[in-house]
Structures are given as C-alpha cells and as structure tokens.
Design a protein that fits this description.
By secondary structure, the protein is mainly alpha-helical. About 70% of the residues lie in helices and about 5% in strands. A two-stranded antiparallel sheet has the order 1-2. A two-stranded antiparallel ribbon has the order 3-4. Strand 3 and strand 4 (about 210-215) form a beta hairpin. Helix 2 (about 30-45) runs parallel beside helix 9 (about 215-245), helix 3 (about 50-75) packs antiparallel against helix 4 (about 85-110) and helix 3 packs antiparallel against helix 7. The longest helix is centred in the last third of the chain and has 31 residues, at about 215-245. The chain is globular.
Length: about 250
Amino acid sequence: MSLPLSHEQRPAFYALHPGGWRDYWTLLHPPYTIWHLSYVVIGAAAAPAIDGGRLAASLLAFFLAVGLATHALDELNGGPLRTQIPRPTLAIIAAAGLVGAIALGVLGAVEISWWLLAFVAFGAFIATAYSLEMWGGRFHSDIWFAVAWGAFPALTGYFTQAASVEWPAVLVALACFSLSLAQRRLSKAVRQIRRESVLIEGRIVLEDGREVSIDGQMLRAAPELALQALAVAMALLAGGLAGARLV
C-alpha cells in the first residue's frame, strides 16, 4: 500500500499556516521554547536560595538567546519551518536576540560573579555553532543538543542564584540533559516524517489477521503526543517549583 505525503503538511505540530504574524509564532517553537526555559527554573529552584529578580533576568536572557536568536539562525540555515519571513528580518531577530542575551549576561556577571561570563561565552558560541551547523555540523548532534538546551540552562539557572556549582546542580543538569536527549530523539523521527518523507508504505498484520495500514499520521502520532505531554509537564513542574520557592 502506497501512501503519498503532502508537501503542504505542517513542518511541526505547533506550526501555523504560513504568512504574516503566524510565521513569527511558528518561529518561536512555543512548546519547545517554554520547555527549555523550564530547565532554567528547575536549576534555579535547586539552589539553596532563590531570587525572583535574578530568575526573571535569566529567563529573559534564555528567551532572547533560544526563543529568538537560535530559532532565527536555524530558519536562516535552510528554512526548515518554511516561513515567509525575509532573510534580513531573520538576521535582525537573531542579532537582537543574541546581543540582548549577552548584555543581560554581562550585567549579571557584574552583580553575581565574573565567572558568569564563562556561561555567557559558551551560550553565545553554542547558539551560533549549533544553529548554523558550523564546522561541518560538529556541534549539531543529539549530544550537543542535550548539553546546550538541557544541561546548560539548568546549570546557568543554578549558578545565577548560588554563584557556584554544587553537586545538586550537577544531578539536575544531568536529568535535564537526559530529558533533552529524549526530546531530540523523538522530534528527529517526527521531523523526518513531516519534512523529508514523500512516500510511506506498509502494513502491520496482527495475530488475529487484522491489518493496520502504516502512514505518516500513524508513525508520528505517538512521539508527537509524548512531546506535547512532556512540554506541558515540564512547564507545570517549573511553575510549581518556582511557586514553592518564591512564595
């Protein structure tokens, strides 16, 4: 059985119909941006004490770096989301996001610790190297994804509160690394079906003789549902932890 896939299907489950303001919503990758910002909150919540102002600044910096800069650079590098945003506009969004994040990081270093500049430098580097697939895509791998968007936000969230990295921060960072690795593995399979496949054919024959057709919707249903559930769970977990520590 041959099941052709439409090239007009959405490039992601959260993507809206191309054009106008909808492209900017799609560019933000809302579920994934919130997911990775949650790691900042979780890292901060693991610190001995938590300061709301520092947490807000950390979240804003990561929103600028991840939500804006890296996603705009990624769209510049091949247009995987198929938006109609002009390339100059994407470049401006990326530059503004990265500069804003760096500026917040430098201000944080003045107040908290000059060691925070090491986090700023790594963040600026990995945002660019990962999204633009520099050096032959060496930093565009599953492991680097988990480091950059899982462990790093958690460690940074902790450091901005404690001005140090203790063993609880390492455990939290490893947990966020593993969660991001799971996200990456699930989303890669879904992206391949949505963005690259032009034909899927096959069937599953059950013990009782029934047959289940294999198509794109079937193959992506389970991993996409898992991704959606995890995104909601991470946001709720981060909100609960922040509320418990700040109230």
